[in-house]
Prior knowledge:
Blueprint: H1 10-29, H2 32-38, H3 43-46, E1 52-54, E2 61-62, H4 64-76, E3 81-93, E4 96-108, E5 120-134, E6 137-147
Parallel strand pairs: 1-6
Antiparallel strand pairs: 1-2, 3-4, 4-5, 5-6
Helix pairs in contact: 1-2
Domain SnoaL-like: 16-148
InterPro entries: NTF2-like_dom_sf (IPR032710), SnoaL-like (IPR037401)
Organism: Streptacidiphilus fuscans
Amino acid sequence: xxxxxxxxxxxxxxxxxxxxxxxxxxxxxxxxxxxxxxxxxxxxxxxxxxxxxxxxxxxxxxxxxxxxxxxxxxxxxxxxxxxxxxxxxxxxxxxxxxxxxxxxxxxxxxxxxxxxxxxxxxxxxxxxxxxxxxxxxxxxxxxxxxxxxxxxxxxxxxxxxxx
Length: 163
């Protein structure tokens, strides 16, 4: 076996893909219980390498309780959110899986009248989701979301450097 070559079976890739989608579905539905089930639990969640999360613009959160509290706060203050995932890549190496994707986000903006949904606002973030195989199946171990601050442009990564 060559070191560094993904060893995941098609079944592993499918299971990780499903676990990744479960994260975004739970967020869209505002379902904290379902979101809780996505994350690692027990000893896997609270050791030094346990649950870790970086929301766009937030400091790093460590430990299951801190991570889940952050999602509860986000859900409590978000009337509507929908994710359109693009550029999804899934790699599995043994008992660890890496998912990278672009989160194209549609959410409600500030409301003018109490009880109404605010205007829809779009945003984009790139995400790295790291999963661990546990006795309960694939569970999210680390999420890192970073806002995309550019409007696109060069897809090849090369700019027009002059000077």
